[in-house]
Design a protein that fits this description.
Shape: elongated
Distance between the termini: 47 Å
Radius of gyration: 22 Å
Order of helices and strands: HHHEEH
Strand content: 5-15%
Oligomer: single chain
Strand order of the largest sheet: 1-2
Structural class: mainly alpha
Number of strands: 2
Largest sheet: 2 strands, antiparallel
Helix content: 55-70%
Length: 93
């Protein structure tokens, strides 16, 4: 994602930088394209892939919100456990 957000790259150029097969990189690109995080434009024989900054920011914002929700839930579970330990210290073990 970092590379396609910085500029367009062909799938073959992306694959050359990683220790994975061209087909595996192509599958990753297809998943990211289906998710709307990158787009491919036909340019002759090549289809350069470019990142959609707006979509990535939207996903990052959503993940931040979910993280806050789950951190609150985990903090509440910690409080409940601490309260239970305080009221029933003989059952800790």
């Amino acid at each position: 994602m970092r590379r396609v957000l910085a500029g367009e790259h062909s799938v073959s150029a992306l694959a050359a930088k990683y220790d994975m097969s061209f087909a595996a990189v192509q599958e990753h690109v297809a998943v990211l394209e289906k998710a709307g995080l990158l787009t491919k434009q036909r340019s002759g024989r090549e289809q350069p892939a470019g990142g959609d900054v707006t979509a990535v920011r939207s996903v990052a914002s959503m993940l931040t919100e979910l993280e806050q929700v789950w951190r609150g839930r985990i903090a509440r579970i910690d409080q409940l456990i601490a309260c239970d330990i305080a009221t029933h210290p003989d059952q800790v073990g």
